[in-house]
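Q: what sequence does this backbone want?
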């Protein structure tokens, strides 16, 4: 059986996605965009090696996984050549070259591409979808219809024989539309396999939502709600969502009394029917004295994932007359998103008052509510 290697190209800057971090390092349904592809290739029985072409953002590689890292080049073609140089399989091995910004790769597509290359007359293969929309060409104020008959959207991964694509890319110029173009220039035969909307590339910010919908596994989402209250005692700040907010008092509690994160912890636990924060971190246990509530929140996330669910989004409401939460709201969102590995737009924090009514209205303490939506893991 012919061996196969996958090369994941992740050296781009992804500026059109409109975020500070390149799109391949952003989160999608609980894990980085690139990790969807890494997981798909590492778990496929025909893939013997995975080469990730990326800089230090990749981080530590999983122990025991058949993964090696290669340095990206100044252009995509140079990055692909770097990945090909790092591949250690024989020249007749199949190589699948894939864009990290296409997280929807699945086992069926991988298998179809490898099988296509078993035909020695085929030099390359790729997934492709017929163009369904009307096409028009624009020149100034003039629009011209373009016949879409025979036009296809070509996706990745694109499959080749290792030795052939090395030679073709080395001989080709730097401005290739894709890796198939190098084989086309060398006169090689290409065969397409059915593509998929799941293999769409993340290019713009709105593509994240589209891919999240396409990749969400079948199953019933779960909603959990949490509520927490802490009274004030002598101090100089309160901690909410891991952020220290100056105040004339602090919140009283066995841990750091972060009412916002306590409510969110309960929401996550409630969504998967695992009790409440007191069941897992009882206030009678001295080891939780003064503990960072981030510990509780991460453990709730771990327990939910162990039951097969990931956090899709959460919404926290802080209820108090003082201190003012709004100046610290973005820092609270950012800290929560960072801790849970969620995109910032999946975390909402807001505040309200009770118009002077009740214990919060009397400025005796702070209450917080939270709602979390959990979806089945992919």
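A:
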């Amino acid at each position: 059986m012919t061996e196969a290697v996958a090369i994941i190209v992740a050296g781009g800057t992804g500026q059109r996605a409109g975020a500070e971090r390149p799109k391949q390092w952003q989160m999608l349904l609980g894990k980085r965009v690139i990790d969807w592809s890494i997981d798909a290739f590492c778990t496929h029985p025909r893939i013997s090696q995975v080469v990730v072409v990326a800089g230090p953002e990749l981080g530590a590689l999983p122990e025991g996984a058949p993964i090696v890292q290669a340095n990206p080049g100044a252009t995509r073609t140079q990055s692909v050549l770097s990945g090909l140089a790092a591949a250690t399989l024989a020249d007749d091995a199949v190589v699948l070259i894939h864009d990290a910004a296409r997280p929807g790769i699945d086992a069926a597509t991988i298998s179809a591409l490898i099988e296509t290359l078993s035909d020695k007359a085929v030099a390359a293969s790729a997934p492709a979808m017929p163009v369904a929309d009307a096409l028009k060409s624009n020149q100034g104020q003039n629009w011209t219809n373009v016949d879409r008959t025979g036009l296809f959207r070509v996706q990745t991964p694109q499959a080749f024989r290792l030795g052939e694509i090395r030679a073709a890319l080395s001989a080709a110029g730097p401005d290739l539309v894709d890796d198939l173009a190098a084989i086309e220039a060398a006169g090689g035969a290409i065969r397409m396999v059915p593509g998929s909307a799941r293999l769409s590339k993340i290019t713009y910010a709105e593509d994240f939502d589209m891919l999240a919908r396409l990749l969400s596994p079948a199953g019933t989402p779960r909603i959990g709600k949490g509520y927490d209250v802490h009274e004030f005692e002598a101090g100089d700040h309160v901690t909410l969502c891991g952020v220290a907010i100056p105040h004339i008092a602090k919140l009283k509690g066995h841990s750091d009394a972060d009412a916002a994160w306590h409510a969110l912890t309960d929401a996550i636990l409630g969504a998967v029917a695992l009790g409440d924060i007191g069941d897992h971190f009882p206030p009678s246990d001295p080891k939780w004295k003064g503990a960072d509530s981030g510990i509780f929140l991460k453990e709730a996330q771990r327990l939910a994932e162990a039951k097969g669910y990931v956090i899709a989004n959460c919404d926290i409401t802080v209820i108090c007359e003082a201190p003012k939460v709004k100046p610290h709201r973005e820092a609270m969102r950012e800290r929560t998103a960072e801790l849970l590995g969620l995109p910032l737009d999946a975390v909402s924090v807001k505040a309200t008052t009770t118009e002077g009514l009740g214990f919060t209205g009397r400025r005796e303490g702070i209450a917080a509510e939270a709602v979390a939506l959990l979806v089945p893991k992919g």
